[in-house]
Amino acid sequence: MLPAYYSPIRRVWYYALRGIVALVLLFLIFPILVTIPLSFNVEPFFTFTEGMLKLDPEAYSTKWYVEFFLDQKWNIALKNSFYFAFMSTILATVLGTVAAVGLASDRMPFKPLITAILISPMIVPLVIIAAGMYFFYSAIDIVGSDIAIIFAHAILGTPFVVITVTATLAGFDKSLLRASSSLGANPVTTFFHITFPLIRPGVISGALFAFVTSFDEVVLIIFLADPDQRTIPRQMFSGLREQINPTILAAASLLILISILLLFSIEILRRRSESKGMFNNE
Amino acid sequence: MQNTTANDPANHLSLNAEHSLKYHQAIRREKTKALMLVLPLLFFLIVFFITPIGYMLYRSFYNPTVANLAPKTTEILGHWQDLSKLPSEESYKTLSYELKQLQKTRLSGKFAEEVNRRLPRTGSVIKKTARKIKKIELDKVENYQQLLLSIDEKWGKPEIWTGIRAAGDKFTINYYANALDYKLEPSGKLVKQPEEMQVYLPILQRTFMIALIITVLTFLLGYPVAYYLSLIPLKKASVLLIFVLLPFWTSLLVRTTAWIAILQSNGVVNQTLLSLHIIDKPLDIIYNQFSTVLAMTHILLPFMILPLYSVMKGIDPSYVRASQSLGANPFKAFIQVYFPLSLPGLSAGALLVFIIAIGYYITPALLGGVDGQLISNLVAHHMRSTNNWELAAALGSVLLILIIALYWIYDRLVGASNIKL
User: Between chains, do B225 and A24 touch, taking CB under 8 Å as contact?
Assistant: First the structure.
């Protein structure tokens, strides 16, 4: 309850702030809330039918999910999405982690410049990256190859890995490294036995970010991919432009499910590393 | 950061030169080690990210197509001095031969198109000439100037020749001129397009306006949320943060799809308003600027809330209390004490939102209709539909320069390594 000494203006402000916050949070979550029930629509529309509003079970159906899993186009897209995301995540995680370890060193020369370059793929608009890569990949003749897309997606993922691993390394006690080497371990042994276990939460959450980045990405796919390299977002993009059909909503709901799973894994990782005092959030 | 100078052994006078040397060697070894670790990623980015973008910049002012298609004509016209007079008979002869050759290899259309791009209304003349010249035995022709004149009288004026000459320039600022709604005349003079002919400047302006509106909206919506979250206990805040993080983690395509379902003419909003009899025919709220701004505000809102929240969490509430105990009313305390303290988070969030918004492509492409298209959509349009790659590259470069300037400011104010995830 509000303290009795609160002035009327303060009371109004108290409720107004909560009201505004509730509305904004509703605005944020609303599109996600709408998508899931609509994907169970028995009719081929993007709208709530009368039956759905009356909660008539007849008005609901899982047929768009069946369609999603039976349709060959969506199947190929699903397979491609996982393949590109998986491969580019491995590449981004390895390169990004190693670079972050180097970047965390106090002796790193040109640190601000190199950091700015390593983060820049996050900042440059995707259309520019896509256009540049299209020119360049045409010139070296790798447009339409898997390697082109894996490299392109890995580049988008690396800044996330660099950022999350650097954040974990900020709370890293460097005397552990000296202790390890004074006990006779070589740098590689030290990395795998000392450094890696301690920065693992950062590496995993960076990898998850890289995975989602690739899994969601559509602009580079539009420019660089062949039709048989379609991914789920690409399939949704052309579906939204050509013929809108609730299979897209079924796909969207499945993606929401994946994001919920990822969100919770990241949060669990963050808490675990925070409780160890490793994840430097400030 | 450790303060290394305080226990820097090299500063101790008692140490001899040998120790100092060893110390510097050790430092250099550490430097090399750090650099070696960063090098693989740096190399990867330089080859597959920076080089492609550099190549795009290069393509925006380098176009060798005409010079490659008709090398001899290009060379001869390079020696043409007085542009008000017709070029030499030799030029007519060379062009006739090269046009015939191009027609045989089916490249005359490409040639005509390139010249036409440089000087409108010349493409059809060149195409017609190429078609007719194919049947003529050029070795038997005595006067090539008359030959071309008999096909089209435009060959009797210097203008079309200046077009071919200008199109033959391998390096040109023509595409930048076009991207900024200027016309580069074959004589080399820059002329601003009349207002009704301008295409790109208005869209550039619109992109700026829309990005600015979105930044302001995310601030207005995001500030109270971040403020409230920073006041409540951490446990409760992390539950409410799910509302911010879940959309952040949800696919862009999913959120855009959802907005289509919500805003379309028989979508959720219109259905509700119709059934409540607030309106009697569906509102036009999709495929225009409104839907673009709404969906992009939704998509970018977490980028504002998260940095604001992380800064506000660190603001000591005793400052505000102190100012109030010194007589400031709550409003004044907020404006003069709290708000300035939250500015680092605000500038980080606002710059990030603005940078992402001016380069946005997908949402305007799907929700923008005609008047919601942004500069990125034009780049994509010229890449994929008109195949005018050079113009696409020039437009992309203009956008890139803006982004780099903003990123530089961001790096100065916030620091690139301070992006929080």
Answer: yes
What does pTM read for this prediction? 0.86
Name the DSSP class of B306.
Answer: H
Question: In chain B, which among 230-259 make CB contacts under 8 A with chain A?
Answer: 238, 240, 242-247, 249-259
Note the pLDDT tens digit of each residue in B383-407. 988 888 889 999 999 999 999 999 8
- B252-263 and B268-275 are packed helices; what angle lies between their axes, rounded to 10 degrees? 20
The CATH architecture that domain B200-418 belongs to is Orthogonal Bundle (1.10)
B35 closest CB neighbour out of A102, A124, A126 = A102
Environment class of A252 (CB within 10 Å of its CB; exposed 0-12, middle 13-18, buried 19+) = buried
Residue B401 touches chain A, beta carbons under 8 Å: no
* Residue B323 binned pLDDT confidence (cut-offs 50, 70, 90): confident
Q: Identify the DSSP state of B262.
A: H
CA distance B405 to chain A (A): 11
What is the chain A residue with the closest CA to B2?
A106
A223: which chain B residues are within 8 Å (Cβ-Cβ)?
A: 380, 383-384
Q: Hey, how many other C-beta atoms are within 10 angstroms of the C-beta on A171?
A: 18
CB contact under 8 A, A102 and B257: no
pLDDT digits (tens, 9 = 90+) for A156-179: 999 999 998 988 887 777 788 888
According to CATH, the topology of domain A78-275 is MetI-like fold (1.10.3720)
Residue-wise pLDDT for A58-103, tens only, equals 888 888 899 899 989 999 999 999 999 999 999 999 999 999 999 8
| Inter-chain touch B396–A131, beta carbons under 8 Å | yes
Per CB-CB distance under 8 Å, the chain B contacts of A275 are none
Task: Tell me the domain boundaries of chain B.
Answer: 17-59, 66-172, 200-418
Cα angle B153-B166-B126, degrees, rounded to a multiple of 5 = 35
